[in-house]
Here is the input.
Amino acid sequence: MTALYVLDVPENTAVAKVAAEDPEVRVGRVGPYFEITADGAIVVDRRATGCRHAVWYSCVAGVAGGRIVQHDKDALRVDPA
Here is the structure.
């Protein structure tokens, strides 16, 4: 399982919301973090989130069971390990 952790603050809510639109992705909470999980890859489109670049590039708090293979102005992609 691939997991992406994003701090649960108002600026990052759109990241979790857009990730949850994928039927293969589950969004829950662990402590003060959104836990975004999937059996496969997790892909979040930056433009769909409406996040500005500063928020976008600082939203990742951690990754488990995978690795970030894309984190640019277009998307954040975490592939399974």
The CA atoms of residues 6 and 59 lie 6 Å apart. The chain has three helices and seven strands. The first helix runs from residue 13 to 20. The domain at 2-80 is CATH 3.90.56.10 (Phenol Hydroxylase P2 Protein).
